[in-house]
UniProtKB/TrEMBL annotation:
This is Phosphate transport system permease protein. It is found in: Cell membrane. Its main location: membrane. SUPFAM superfamilies: MetI-like (SSF161098). Coiled coil: none annotated. One of its GO terms (biological process) is phosphate ion transport.
């Protein structure tokens, strides 16, 4: 007795044919999201620039006599033109931020190297935790600490500097008491940006390939020579990026500067004397509550200048980073 013929077997679905299709779809979705995020950053940047330009337009295209009267009221008659007003503010902003970066840079690199290559594991973990906490402290806390604690405490040191190094123009005395000066503000800003630079450079130092370090040590290099030949060249572009990030924080800092610095409107390098300089961000915060519509336009115009300077600084940093990475 013959059995009934079996129906032809259906070919099994080849999963290899379906997986690439779903993979390609996921890839397109992910690529679209990535493009959207990138475009969003450009849109936000353009929106900020257009907002500043639109709100500053009454200053640019308005009655210059009215603008001069507003600027004169802001400065007590020391300046009547916009560039005569924003010039000293821009000078003070760059001076304070540059001093803060100079103070913080080498200390940050030293702390990062200690955490990544010298400290025991438990101590390194504890220091890393402290650095991350310091990076998260709000600027107003640094301002309160600087105004209430550092300003009274640091006067003897600044006075000693003025007495013994006063022959150097930037340390010319007498030192102001209380020392609400550029030197004090730069020190506070350096403490603010120090954990930012330290945190980034520490992570970059830890990413140095172990083979490079072991090869240098195997050739007879000391630990410092190994760091100089392997770690620092590997982390060069990252160090520059971290420094520029800290510089950007210092350029835009408001509350700490406002709470410590005694403002002035001069092109002055006298770091130990009060009422010499002021920054753009702190000046906006100080003048904004009492400004009328034209005054707000003038202040936003100074903010536009700060925006352009910050953009150019970051663009320059990007070029330096690309060159260093090559």
């Amino acid at each position: 007795m013959s059995s009934a013929p079996k129906p032809p077997a259906q070919p099994a679905a080849d999963s290899s044919l379906t997986k690439p299709v779903s993979g390609e779809k996921a890839d397109r979705i992910f690529r679209g999201i990535a493009y959207a995020c990138g475009i969003l950053i450009l849109v936000v940047l353009a929106a900020v620039a257009l907002f500043l330009l639109f709100r500053a337009w009454p200053l640019i295209g308005g009655d210059q006599r009215t603008n001069s009267d507003v600027i004169s009221s802001f400065t007590g008659g020391k300046a009547t033109s916009f560039w005569g007003y924003v010039g000293p503010l821009l000078f003070g902003t760059v001076l304070v931020a540059a001093l803060a970066l100079i103070i913080a840079f080498f200390v940050s690199i030293g702390i990062a190297l200690f955490i990544s290559h010298y400290a025991p594991k438990r101590l390194a973990a504890m220091l890393s935790y402290i650095v991350d906490i310091l990076a998260a402290i709000p600027s107003v806390i640094y301002g309160l600490w600087g105004g209430l604690v550092l300003v009274p405490a640091i006067y003897p040191f600044w006075n000693w500097i003025a007495e013994h190094l006063g022959w150097i123009p930037i340390f010319a005395g007498p030192a102001s008491n209380p020392p609400r000066t550029v030197a004090t503000v730069a020190l506070v800003l350096a403490i603010m940006i120090l954990p930012i630079i330290t945190s980034i450079t520490r992570d970059i130092f830890l990413q140095t390939p172990k083979l490079l370090e072991e090869a240098a040590l195997g050739l007879g290099a000391t630990k410092w020579e190994m760091i100089k030949m392997s770690v620092l060249p590997f982390a060069r572009s990252g160090i520059i990026s971290a420094s520029m990030l800290g510089l950007g924080r210092a350029l835009g800092e408001t509350m700490a500067v406002l709470m410590i610095l005694s403002p002035g409107l001069k092109y002055s390098f006298k770091l130990l004397q009060a009422s010499q300089n002021q920054t753009i961000a702190a000046n906006i915060a100080a003048q904004y509550p009492e400004a009328d519509s034209i005054g707000v336009s003038v202040l936003i115009g100074t903010g536009l200048v700060l925006f352009v300077i910050t953009f150019l600084v970051n663009l320059l940093a990007r070029r330096i980073t690309e060159k260093a990475s090559k």
